[in-house]
Automatic annotation (TrEMBL):
Lineage: Eukaryota, Metazoa, Ecdysozoa, Arthropoda, Hexapoda
PANTHER family on file: FI01817P-RELATED, PROTEASE FAMILY M14 CARBOXYPEPTIDASE A,B
Protein name, per record: Peptidase M14 domain-containing protein
Gene3D superfamilies: Zn peptidases
Similarity comment: family membership: Belongs to the peptidase M14 family.
Active site annotation, chain numbering: 343 (proton donor/acceptor)
Domain Peptidase M14 as annotated: residue spans: 84-376
Organism: Loxostege sticticalis
């Protein structure tokens, strides 16, 4: 389950030239790109810790130039796996590689740009059958919920690498998978603040809109109970519905789709819940029982896979008023009948789910998704 992303050997000369140039620009560029591999290591290996003094740079360059047989270190190979949490570039390289290796069923598109200009990438997995319905899956709309991106990429991996052996209820869907819906926030949780929840927009001198309060349906309802109008609040809903490019990208992709969406799954952590509309009011949604039963199907599959118990119910019943959420919008406006938020593990560790729990969380959720697709086709 690992992917070699860049193991191509480079010519010595080109590497030397690259090192000389790149080291001069080191503080601007390399920390940003190379920290992604291990958090602190640079391409020059252990010991440099992301710092590079000018005299050190010169000495290193001279050493490389005057020793003809010096072998430059190969670039560290980036591996996608589900043994640890990964930075954005590893995630994006992973889906790009799926597209390269499985071009018949995989397409990667950029559905929008984040506030800070990062790509919001989506992997579409499809056999291009015109009668397919569509599934939406997103992770890390709340960036501190790292397990969501791990689970979503795992689902993509299983789908792509087993596509022709999977059941008809899986292969008759166009899968739209956005592993990191909030890439600015996701990177920020790796570089600055592990507990960051919002995007990185700036309003009135304060950073961040809670993207899961920025969708239009029920936006701003219930005052402070459902979201906040204060930019410094963790639940700040933004100045207007869809004020943020990340939420607008979801809207435009779904409403612009040629295949009709049947399922919308937005992944969160850490309450171990499967919840559905409404969040903006306490009344049950129109097909409450059908959604409840679908949630129960997923919860049973999870229990059978790992013994974990996920509870099922409406957003308001199981948590609190949440207004302007993606699933209230997808259900009411985009008319996606099976719209759920899945709150992954763990109540014990909260947002800091240990990496040794990633794999079994992936397995239980894949089982849930697989069984659920049979259910949504039984109509
Ligand atoms: Zn969340």
């Amino acid at each position: 389950m690992s992917v070699v992303i860049d193991s191509r050997p480079r010519k010595v000369g080109s590497v030397l030239r690259k090192n000389i140039v790149v080291e001069g620009e080191y503080e601007d560029k390399d920390i940003e790109t190379d920290k992604t591999e291990s958090g602190t290591q640079t391409r020059f290996g252990k010991g440099s810790k992301g710092k590079c003094s000018p005299s050190g740079m010169i000495q290193k360059c001279i050493k490389q130039i005057i020793i003809p047989n010096h072998k430059p270190k190969k670039r560290k190979i980036k591996l996608m796996d589900w043994k640890k949490y990964h930075r954005l570039n590893v995630i994006y390289a992973f889906i790009d590689d799926l597209e390269r290796d499985y071009p018949a069923i995989c397409t990667v598109t950029t559905i929008g740009k984040s506030v800070e200009g990062r790509d919001i990438k989506m992997l579409k997995i499809s056999n291009s059958n015109a009668s397919n319905t569509a599934v939406w899956i997103d992770g890390s709309i709340h960036p501190r919920e790292w397990i969501t991106t791990a689970v979503v990429t795992y689902i993509a991996d299983v789908l792509v690498k087993n596509f022709h052996n999977l059941s008809n209820s899986i292969t008759n869907k166009d899968w739209h998978i956005v592993p990191v819906l909030n890439p600015d926030g996701y990177e920020y949780t790796h570089t600055h603040d592990r507990m960051w929840r919002k995007n990185r927009a700036c309003y009135e001198g304060e950073y961040g809109v809670d993207l899961n309060r920025n969708f239009s349906y029920g936006w701003g309802n219930n005052g402070d109970e459902g979201s906040s109008e204060e930019p410094n609040n963790v639940f700040y809903r933004g100045p207007a519905p869809f004020s943020e490019p990340e939420t607008a990208a979801v809207r435009d992709t779904i409403l612009g789709s040629t295949s009709p969406f049947k399922v919308f799954l937005s992944f969160h952590s850490y309450f171990e819940l499967i919840i559905f509309p409404w969040g903006f009011k306490k009344e049950p949604c129109p097909n409450y029982l059908r959604l409840l039963e679908g949630g129960a199907i997923m919860a049973r599959a999870i229990y059978n896979a790992t013994g974990m118990t996920y509870k099922v119910g409406s957003t308001k019943d199981m948590t609190y008023y949440a207004c302007g959420t993606s699933i209230d919008w997808s259900y009411a406006i985009a008319k996606i009948p099976y719209s759920y938020m899945i709150e992954l593990r763990s109540k014990k560790h909260k947002f800091r789910l240990p990496k040794d729990k990633i794999a079994e969380t992936c397995v239980e959720i894949w089982s849930a998704v697989e069984h659920f697709m049979d259910y949504v086709d039984q109509e």
